[in-house]
Write a structure and sequence with these properties.
One of its GO terms (cellular component) is cytosol. It is built from two helices and four strands; from the N terminus they run βαββαβ. It is of the alpha+beta class.
Length: about 70
């Protein structure tokens, strides 16, 4: 069994619509996540590859940066 790691990402979200877009793309991946809109952070708990998570977040059209494991 693989262990889930919580990954921290910076996503340039400015409004509820932005966080809604992030929620939509992440729901398709079947991962646990938490969005911190004021600080523009997204925490994803997953055993998926970081590149997969980055690519998924970039589908929102926002600037995304991988900060690292939490």
């Amino acid at each position: 069994m693989t262990t889930s790691i919580t990954h921290e990402f910076f996503v340039d979200m400015t409004c509820e619509g932005c966080s809604g877009a992030v929620t939509r793309v992440l729901n398709k991946l079947d991962v646990k996540f938490d969005i911190d809109l004021p600080n523009k952070k997204v925490f994803i708990e997953s055993d998926k590859d970081t590149d997969v998570l980055l690519e998924t977040l970039r589908k929102t059209g926002k600037t995304v940066t991988y900060i690292g494991p939490k």
